Amino acid sequence: MSYKIPFSGRAHKYTDDEKEIILKAIDDAVPLTQGRYQKEFEEKFASYIGTKYAFALNNATAALELSAQLCQFKDGDQFICPSHTFTASAYPFIKKGARPVWADIDKDTRVVTLESIKRCVTKNTKAIVVVHLYGFIIPEIEDIANFAKENGIFLIEDVAQAMGTEIDEKKAGTFGDFGVFSFHSHKNITTLGEGGMLIVKDKKFADILPMLRHNGHLAWNIQRENYWTPAMGNVDLPQLNGEYLMPNNYCLGEVECALGIKLLDRLDEINKQKRARAIKFINKLVQYDILEFHKEDSLKHNYHLLVAYVKDGKRDIFMQKMSEEKSIQCVVQYYPLNRYDFYKKLGFGYANCKNTDDFFDNMVSFPFHHMMSDDEYEYLLTSTIEVLKEI
Length: 391
Ligand SMILES: Cc1ncc(COP(=O)(O)O)c(C=O)c1O
What we know:
Blueprint: H1 16-28, H2 36-49, E1 53-57, H3 60-71, E2 78-82, H4 91-95, E3 99-103, H5 114-118, E4 125-131, H6 141-150, E5 154-158, E6 166-167, E7 170-171, E8 178-182, E9 196-200, H7 203-213, E10 217-218, E11 234-235, E12 239-240, E13 243-244, H8 254-284, E14 291-293, E15 306-310, H9 315-324, H10 341-345, H11 354-362, E16 363-366, H12 374-390
Helix pairs in contact: 1-8, 2-8
The chain binds pyridoxal-5'-phosphate (PLP).
């Protein structure tokens, strides 16, 4: 079915300047991976986020997997994670040997709280994955970071949807041990469909990440006096806390990095425009209290997604009318992970997460990509009001 306003899998259109950069990098990047554009992208990203060590990767899932690998899980280790998130927040940690304990979300913010995390802690908790979902930075992130630190637990912030959000001028991703970002097609900025960034605090992680990212490659630790020194570079096993780690190949290409450098100039502007549209939308609907939105007119929310709780069990009828009468594709998002066959088959199908279930069973996510024209946005707004009047 084709919609007047689809829930697009693509977030934004490139400007002529951005397209020019792509063409330039296609011509002048040597090599086409792991060159000067990667270095510049990482430096600019680190400076934008306010951190020291940033590593460009082929996507955020790879960043989550590398974080999981650096946690060095042992038999019986657990990690805490909200079940109300995209699957990539969780399964890389299972893949690397930890068992999930699902944390509930807060009814109003739709993200975890310190309290919901504390309820999941056991003597086996080795890591906490928190997700700044929908583009909303977790209000208690600082307290959660302090709690994790005091208890010797790794904190991984999944910032895939919330790039650029901040509390008291401290950006999401900089509170924990690891910050994970995505430039996937659907995100507020995208490096041609795939891309990610991992930031780390600890120098000992930063020292081995280039090897972990690229097949264990590193420079020879000897003078190459003779041209026949075997191969162009050395390969070795990255070592952490006396243990060897197997490397991966998770590099991002130079063209994507060149584009990423340019897109960072526009990120705040895109976030600002999405925020302004979201707030106008929410304010115009204020008399229809059947819809409960996040209401955050501040840098805490980038409105990657615009979602609402639909009260009185009217979600399905609302969505049906939006689709059939207005040709607008709203969706329902973030099936609690424990309900998926994937997690059930692994034995992780149980969660005590009442708010998560209630939110998922009553939520709606509006089409809200940056490519939407003003006319389409107005149509979305007036159509929503008309449907709300009907139900
Ligand atoms: C919350 C969250 N975490 C992780 C990811 C994974 O990102 P990527 O597609 O870059 O691997 C996504 C992407 O959709 C996401 O929304």
